[in-house]
Amino acid sequence: MNKKRIFILNGHPAEVSLSKKLTETYADAAIAAGHEVRITHLHDLSFDSDFGYAGFAKTKPLEPALEKVLEDLEWSEHVVLASPMWWGGLPAKLKGMIDRTFLPGRTFDTRVLKGGLPSPLLSGRSARVLLTSDTPGWFLRIVYNNALFYQLRKQIFGFVGIKPARITHFSGASHPKPGVIDRWIGRVKKFGATAA
Q1: How far is the CA of 159 from the CAs of 110, 113, 154, 165, in angstroms?
Q2: For residues 89 and 190, what is the distance between their CA atoms, to the nearest angstrom?
Q3: What distance in Å separates the CA atoms of residue 125 and residue 68, rounded to the nearest whole number?
Q4: What are the tens digits of pLDDT across the range 135-188?
Q5: What are phi and psi of 182, to 5 degrees?
Q6: Which residues have C-beta within 8 Å of that of residue 33, sequence separation ≥ 6?
Q7: How far, in Å, are 1, 20, 36, 94, 139 from residue 83 at the CA level?
């Protein structure tokens, strides 16, 4: 098995969360299997989440925490993101981190267009998203057309070249039945061991 450089981001803004447990489980299994791991918890990062300007002609200087996130993305071969789904989207602080760090010149190139779109600069990487929600999977598919899945796969990771971006959805996260969390943890351990 090829050893990989894995960047893991716990995208939950709270200090204690299921997302944190999932990322730490993944990290432990990946390290035990011999992969190189860097893990970051969103709640530890201090930055202004407001992009603040229109367009990319003028951007705020990146805080050290955001610069480190970009360095870890550039270092990685595989990216793992754990996040809850809130109001059909990502937590505000996580979305703000993406707004601030996924910048031209670092994650995509506006000078080189492919089909009218900027060229991705993070190609050659894959991703695994561990998404928790209370919304059942069937409801996400039928009623919401898996809109957040599409956003994550195509409009965020795919736009900067990180693909495939596989999504594992854990639903009923706020009030899981007995044994459910243990089963989820077991799945995440397997993902970590194989860098999947």
Answers
A1: 12, 12, 6, 11
A2: 27
A3: 18
A4: 999 999 999 899 999 999 999 999 999 999 999 999 999 898 899 999 999 999
A5: -60, -40
A6: 1, 192, 193, 194, 195
A7: 28, 9, 22, 8, 19
Longest dimension (CA), the chain: 53
Q: State pLDDT tens for residues 101-139.
A: 999 999 999 988 888 889 999 999 999 999 999 999 999
Asked if residue 130 lies in contact with residue 165, where contact means CB atoms within 8 angstroms, the answer is no
* Residue 108, token pair as written in the block: 């995509």
pLDDT tens for each residue of 4-50 = 999 999 999 999 999 999 999 999 999 999 999 999 999 999 999 99
Q: What whole-number distance in Å separates Cα of residue 126 and Cα of residue 68?
A: 19
- Who contacts 87 (Cβ-Cβ below 8 Å, separation ≥6)? none
pTM above 0.85, yes or no: yes
Which residue has tokens 């803004």?
13
Contact, 66 vs 47, CB < 8 A?
yes
**Bridge partners for 80 per DSSP:** 8, 128
Query: For the chain, what's the residue count?
Result: 196
In DSSP notation, 3-69 reads: --EEEEEE--SSSS-HHHHHHHHHHHHHHHTT-EEEEEEGGG--------SSSSSS-PPPPHHHHHH
